[in-house]
Amino acid sequence: MNAEIITIGDELLIGQVVDTNSAWLCEHLNMYGVRVQRITTTPDDLHSIIAALSEAKGRARVVFVTGGLGPTKDDITKAAACEFFNCAMRIDAAVMQHITELLTARGIPVSPTNRSQAIVPARCIALHNNEGMAPAMYFDAADTAYIFMPGVPYEMQGLMQNEILPLLCRKKLVQAIVHKTVMTYGIPESTMSDRLEKWELALPAHIKLAYLPGPIALRLRLSAHGPNYDVLKHDIDTQIERLKSLIPDNIFGFDDETMAAAIGKNLVAHSQTVSVAESCTGGYIAHLFTSNPGSSAYFQGSITAYANQVKMDLLGVKSLTMMEHGAVSRKVAEEMAEGARRVMNTDYAIATTGIAGPDGGSPDKPVGTVWIAVATPLLTVAKRFVFGVNRERNILRASMTALNMLRKLADNS
User: Fold this and answer.
1) How far apart are alpha carbons 387 and 150 in whole angstroms?
2) Hey, which residues does 247 pair with through a beta bridge?
3) For 2-170, which CATH class?
4) How far apart are CA 17 and CA 3, in angstroms?
5) ∠ CA 222-197-23 to the nearest 5 degrees?
6) Which of 3.40.50.150, 3.40.50.300, 3.40.30.10, 3.30.70.2860 would CATH assign to domain 176-254?
7) CB of 185 within 8 A of CB of 217?
8) In this predicted model, what pLDDT tens digit does every residue of 318-377 receive, in sequence order?
């Protein structure tokens, strides 16, 4: 199926805002077998918007329009849609109820400006916006369907995933599709490709594999296309089970699950807790844990022991250990982890100490050297890593590696 995208806004044409919506739409529509043939950007001008809508008519089966659906006077997309589709406005009761409930829960009175977002063109189907107030609007006009969405990226994305793509599937404008993302850590992309080669080559023709590398995880996305959703889901689930047997130690979650969230789920299931003692990671591991709702059930706290004196005073690292081995050492990492576990009375504790960079290294301890220790009820494990010279990447990689060490130890306990 062919599609076009129309983006609306002066801010796009003067370079004040980068059009990330079109890139996201192209990527996700392509996965549904939709080919975007043209992208048009118009200013906040009634006649320009109507002209763009007219030019796309009949040329594309579906036209996706983003921008200009806010409550302010410069948002004129709804007025343009009314003129283009020759209809008046109406108040959508469901949208009005959503706006009222949303604002009431925040203790904010519903103003006339807020109410205006429930006013939509009479010919459209209003689609619920779970991330904001302005609904998406669906028009089915002869050979071309038009879908208007807010320009706020996270609102547009939520509407596409929760409302618009399912609607297009029901109308048989796009194929049924099932995606499953496998989150892995600890194997580089090239090594992973070699290990999975036979399995990948044996995948059914309607299932495709994509490697999506990143600093936090290597994601493996399986996508299945076909007429029957239930059949596709079964086929994907079958392949996931086969994949688990090939890389059992490297899969930590699925879809958008973070490693910290996966660890938390496991700890809660076993009524266990964790604490953190951080030096070179500066509190980033604690941030990864506390970014997850409900983390208070398993995460007790963190001590950012950046200075050596803090390591000794709060975590009980021995002064003799510090003198004989230095702050960046196996012994200090072990004593930090054991001290955190003792002080915060947790089942597990993670500790990091290292040289994040870009300076401070030496021949025997170059920039990027990090010692990570994990203390468990039975033993303490410490490992040395040398990550690189980029400070931000070192902090991120050290934090993720520390979580991965904990994950493996907790899974096997």
Assistant:
1) 42
2) none
3) alpha beta
4) 23
5) 40
6) 3.30.70.2860
7) yes
8) 999 999 999 999 999 999 999 999 999 999 999 999 999 998 889 999 999 999 999 999
